[in-house]
Design a protein that fits this description.
About 45% of the residues are buried. The longest helix is centred in the last third of the chain and has 17 residues. The chain has a domain of about 190 residues: Rossmann fold (3-Layer(aba) Sandwich), CATH 3.40.50.150. By secondary structure, it is of the alpha/beta class. It contains 10 helices and 10 strands.
Length: about 300
Amino acid sequence: MRGIISDNNRPIEGCSVWKGANRFLAPPMSDAYVHGYQARERERLRDQANALVDLLHSDTSYPPGSTVLEAGCGTGAQTITLASKSPGARITSVDISADSIEEAKARVAAAGIENVEFRHADVFALPFDRESFDHVFVCFLLEHLSRPLDALLRLKELLRPGGTITVIEGDHGSAFFHPENATAQRAIDCLVELQRSNGGDAMIGRQLYPLLSAVGFEAVCVSPRMVYVDASRPELVDGFTRRTFTVMVEGVREPAITAGIIDAEAFDAGIRALYRTAEIDGVFCYTFFKAFGSKARRD
């Protein structure tokens, strides 16, 4: 992780400080989205959301009348589940991509959902007053940010005392599969390296507890959510192994080759090996991490 907080949690170069505990004001910043915004990526996000609803969201719901900020909603793949499971909550979903916001609006409208408002905004410069929300929901955002601590600090500012944050992130270092194949691992490593070069961290899932604790959230609790896929689970073989994970890795083919991380022949062999794990004798595992934390109440 490349951040602007030192190991002793003191601000270092590039971070301006407000007086007061746990208050850091970062300049607006737009971190690169390594997967791009092409139609195939939008389809992959929908497939991922559909395949993982129960695993990731069985315990996600908010009470009627509460206000929820969804930071980094993308094309609304998670928004529909979030809003459907909390129909009485008022949800504000933001994203840095105007095109993604427009698609998210269309998807939510088509689903007949009416408790979501969309805003085009950068997570580092959100247009809301302090303590505007009861809850914050973050899914697959921190991995793309070069300064996740700053983002969490800003989101904490927007929470009312006693409010909660939920964060879900993957960890590409948790992927393992059968048949084992070194070229498949090389292809995955290309994605990890590209994300690192963009300032992100594809293995941030394992860091959620220290990240949330570092910015002062209380009662932090993290649970691993493993996706285990074999031929007895055909819906996950197609929905996750093929259409979510392998398509995600396949999507960085051109930038990985252009960056000189790998040659075309080796990358394509790695993708074939990943698809091989979706065959009748194949197995694929991957772990997501879901974290909860709360903001301290006033005395």
